[in-house]
Inverse folding.
């Protein structure tokens, strides 16, 4: 029987792992060298965060070792939101997802820095400093390609934002654990995070002259193991080497 | 065997990605204790959580302490004391320069870091501050890319975190 704290750490870790893999798909494919390096670096950071979170689950909650959690599970046991598993699409979509996700992630770790779960608080304090660079990168490009861009680039950013929005809202699912997490001082809750995220996203969108999309139904299900058609093929590829010999020492 | 002996040994263990910089100068060693039975415990912390070099650094640190004749060595990696670039020693900053990397600007960790500090980073080749930050991400997680308008040379910096 998992606790609210375990579920929180697992969904954070799964989100980080899957998005890290998506970002890494830009390695060698970026539209310009600096962006190729940026997405690869961000992927590497996220992978490190995922590993540290799986390590906390292993140390504190008797979960398997990080590698087994990352590579030894099937789709139905992954609790990532559907947002992170969507294919990269064009660069505009990847940038918008990076912006929306990292804004939430930055705020999330900021909140967790005060968590009563000590290993999580320590990790959060460390990660928060790193994420500043992700956020800075995302915001720079969002503004550059929108208010400072061409008509075409701005239109593409707006379209990507509209498409990403319902999936992005799925990052703040589920909210049923909010009361328990907040009462124990673990985390203020997904609703509190979503509120802070909306304010921050609106601020940057205003600078970018992008219109914050009207809310439509959030794309939910990922947290319960219901995923898009894109996750399992990605897992197959990601775990291919591990599955040849799970006990191999590297 | 004293704490000083252990620290001295660790000044000879170099960052695998920046061979002029020792673990001690980098500030990743957060604690060294020598117990009464002679066993040694070292704690260290990564520059970035996802730093791929940390395992190599950990095992090299352990080997360096063992080479002193210590039988029982534990090297633990944790985030108890998070690394920031302010932990670099003055000697470490000189060693970065020697490697052609701009040392990070020291900053006040109690206030939110503004990334404007990355602009006008002093060029490691000519010292000019007439430089432009090209990208906050470089060849390793801890570096950023810059261009010096004075000597027209691209360079890398160790980014402040």
């Amino acid at each position: 029987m998992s606790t609210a704290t375990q579920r929180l750490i697992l969904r954070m870790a799964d989100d980080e792992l899957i998005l890290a893999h998506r970002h890494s798909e830009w390695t060698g494919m970026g539209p310009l060298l600096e962006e190729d390096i940026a997405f690869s670096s961000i992927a590497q950071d996220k992978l490190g965060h995922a590993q540290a979170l799986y390590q906390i689950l292993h140390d504190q909650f008797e979960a398997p070792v990080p590698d087994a959690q990352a590579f030894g599970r099937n789709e139905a046991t992954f609790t990532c939101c559907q947002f992170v598993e969507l294919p990269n699409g064009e660069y505009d979509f990847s940038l918008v997802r990076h912006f929306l996700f990292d804004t939430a992630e930055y705020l999330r770790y900021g909140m967790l820095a005060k968590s009563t779960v000590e290993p999580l608080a320590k990790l959060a304090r460390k990660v928060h400093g790193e994420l500043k660079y992700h956020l800075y990168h995302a915001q720079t490009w969002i503004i550059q390609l929108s208010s400072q861009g061409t008509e075409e680039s701005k239109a593409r950013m707006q379209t990507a934002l509209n498409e990403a929005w319902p999936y992005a809202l799925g990052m703040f699912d589920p909210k049923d654990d909010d009361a328990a997490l907040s009462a124990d001082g673990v985390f203020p809750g997904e609703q509190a995070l979503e509120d802070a995220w909306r304010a921050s996203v609106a601020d940057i969108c205003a600078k970018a002259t992008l219109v914050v999309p009207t809310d439509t139904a959030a794309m939910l299900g990922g947290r319960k193991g219901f995923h898009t058609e894109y996750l399992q093929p990605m897992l197959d590829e990601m775990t291919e080497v591990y599955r040849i010999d799970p006990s191999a020492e590297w | 065997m004293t704490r000083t002996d252990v620290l001295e040994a660790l000044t000879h263990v170099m960052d695998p990605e920046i061979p002029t910089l020792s673990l001690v100068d980098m500030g990743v060693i957060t604690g060294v204790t020598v117990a009464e039975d002679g066993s040694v415990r070292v704690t260290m912390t990564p520059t970035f959580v996802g730093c791929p070099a940390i395992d190599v650094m950990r095992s090299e640190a352990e080997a360096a302490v063992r080479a002193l004749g210590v039988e029982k060595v534990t090297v633990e990696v944790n985030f108890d004391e998070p690394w920031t670039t302010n932990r670099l020693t003055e000697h470490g900053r000189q060693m970065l320069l020697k490697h052609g990397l701009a040392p990070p600007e020291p900053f006040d960790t109690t206030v939110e870091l503004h990334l404007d500090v990355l602009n006008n980073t002093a060029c490691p080749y000519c010292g000019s501050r007439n430089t432009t930050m090209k990208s906050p991400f470089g060849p390793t997680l801890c570096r950023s890319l810059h261009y010096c308008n004075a000597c027209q040379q691209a360079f890398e910096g160790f980014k402040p975190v």
Observations:
- Chain B has a mean pLDDT of 93.
